[in-house]
Amino acid sequence: MSELETPGVAVETEAAGQATPEVDPRPRRLVLNMGPQHPSTHGVLRLLLELDGETIMSAQPDIGYLHTGIEKEFEVKLYQQAVTLTDRIDYLAPLSNNLCYCLAVEKLLGLEIPARAQWTRVMLTEFTRLNSHLVWLGTHAIDIGAMSVFLYCFREREDILRIFEMFSGQRMMTSYFRVGGLALEPPRGWQSRVKTFIDVFPSRVDEYEELLTNNRIWTGRTQGIGSFPLADMLDLGVTGPMLRAAGLKWDTRKAQPYSSYEKFDFEIPTRTENDVYARYLVRIEEMRQSARIIKQALEGMPEGRWTADAPHVVLPERDKMKTQMEALIYHFKIVTEGFRVPAGEVYQVIESPRGEVGYYVVSDGTAKPYRVHVRGPSFGNLQAVPRMVEGTLIADVIASIGSMDFVLGDSDR
Amino acid sequence: MIPEELQTIPVVAALVTAQPEAVVGGKSDHGELTLEITPERIVEVCRFLKEDQKFARVSTVTAVDWYPEEPRFDVVYHLHSPERNERLRLKCRLPGANPEIDSVTLVWRGANWYERETFDLFGIRFRNHPNLQRIMLPADWEGHPLRKDYPVTGDRV
């Protein structure tokens, strides 16, 4: 903060007819509200910036504009109803949140999920990663000034949303993963739709790279920007691609595999430059790796049930419900009373496109969660904004915070 | 006290040797390790776990309200060590009247916002916190919504 104490502009005052130079005591600092409606904050984030010229002396993120009390809402919903809340936390990665919540509750219930459901979950969560990274790349590029990338990214994103719609009937708020498996049987003909997409997609990533990777304006705006030490990142709670762009090879999918990720062959991309450009390269490579995972899931998809063999948790199939007495009773009981979950607590962590998502679910033995705490990656990442932008130029703020890829719904909940 | 079978786990053994009075209980279920810590010792325990046991990150800090039971609140810390690839849950029990605990922000700066959130939504005060203000709700909000005696529906009185 020592620059702040530098004296202000020398002004000339005419005192007693004699011109003597004096120092203007007012500091030259300017307080600037960036947001909450600034287009590059993607949601409603307010950054309180204190500027000295174009240099940022301090930055204070102000969040909470999208707080909707989701954690309180969990406590009055039945376990299966609460899945719909998880969609709405991170609206760019609804299936990642579905998955994390379902895994946590399934752990408490001790359910075993059939291979087909696990593989379908992996495949769709990787589609979610592509979806999220595409929106990030398009909007990040548009923030920095590259318009056309956005149009290409949203072209592919549209295909992904159509695949989600095919599986779940919904484009964004999918709620497709349920406690005990999937909401619906995977639709007929999904293989050809996924194959068409995944055969083309790697060449589409090449297109984005052609537009950006060696683009002089892009490299000029992103290289050497927004870096701060890895130790600070860990200390401040940063997770996800930001850590991997700083050289830490840590990905929950590999470190603590869930939903049969250990059966897939993929790499964790890392870089060491630790700047906005490195984060871009990491996410581009993650898209290629996700495409690899989807391809493996498509080719090796196991046959069999798509829900667990747990009639007290999973709704019976429609025709059984109409023809069998027991199925009808289970259906009635699950819909009206829900299912009881043994008392206990679980902290389930998965790797979402943005970083570490954690669901802390506490059960008291009833059919409603006693407490659900959601650890969203955006909340942890946003804490590092002051560390990242203080001392840099205001023109680089947008590139820097864009490289974090936060979603405010995920942070405010 | 800590069950016998937990004492063989390296992190538990190290912690019990370094801070014998701090650990008052523990359990391991669903493959997750939980240790109950006396609230007065939380900062020393966290500092030891970070500096000696390589728990470089605090993943999240939150609370659970057991109203009307006493002690009413559990403050829950989820720690993570990327180096050891381990996770650990710490728990401190606080009374319902004037719940207060020392802040661990000096150990992990990342605890800052999580403690603010817990203060905002549960009304638990974190001593020595650098900026203990509401983070989710407006500054003039009354009450702490995640407490169990805070109504879900109805008009504000």
Short description:
The complex is a heterodimer of chains A (413) and B (157). By secondary structure, chain A is an alpha+beta fold.
Attribute tags:
heterodimer; A: 413 residues; alpha+beta; three-stranded antiparallel beta sheet; 46% helix; B: alpha/beta; Beta Polymerase, domain 2; two-stranded parallel ribbon
Q: Order of strands across the biggest sheet of chain B?
A: 1-2-5-4-3
Determine the fraction of residues in helical runs of chain B and give it as a percent range: 10-25%
Distance between the termini of chain A: 34 Å
- Report the order of strands and helices of chain B: HEEHEEEEHE
Total beta strands of chain B: 7
Query: Strand-residue fraction of chain A?
Result: 5-15%
Explain what you see.
The complex is a heterodimer of chains A (413) and B (157). Chain A has helices at residues 70-74, 83-87, 94-109, 115-144, 147-168, 190-212, 216-222, 230-236, 241-245, 252-255, 276-300, 318-323, 325-337, 377-382, 385-389, 397-402, 408-412, and strands at 10-15, 18-23, 29-34, 46-52, 55-62, 177-178, 181-182, 344-352, 355-363, 371-375. With 413 residues, chain A is α+β, with helices and mostly antiparallel strands. Chain A folds into 2 domains: 2-62, no CATH class; 70-412, Cytochrome-c3 Hydrogenase, chain B (Orthogonal Bundle). In chain A, helix 5 (147-168) packs antiparallel against helix 6 (190-212). The two termini of chain A are 34 Å apart. In chain A, 49% of the residues are buried. Chain B has a domain at 4-110: NADH:ubiquinone oxidoreductase Nqo5 subunit (Beta Polymerase, domain 2, 2-Layer Sandwich). The radius of gyration of chain B is 16 Å and the shape is globular. In chain B, the strands form 2 sheets. A 5-stranded mixed sheet of chain B has the order 1-2-5-4-3. Chain B has a two-stranded parallel sheet with strand order 6-7. With 157 residues, chain B is α/β, with parallel strands linked by helices. Classes of the chains: A alpha+beta (413), B alpha/beta (157). Chain A binds chain B through residues 63-64, 67, 69, 71-73, 75-76, 107-108, 234-237, 248, 250, 255-256, 344-347, 349, 356, 358, 360, 362, 370-371, 373, 375, 379-380, 382-383, 412-413, and chain B through 29-30, 32, 34, 56-60, 62, 64-65, 76, 78, 82, 85, 87, 89, 108-110, 112-114, 117, 121, 134-138, 145-146, 150, 152.
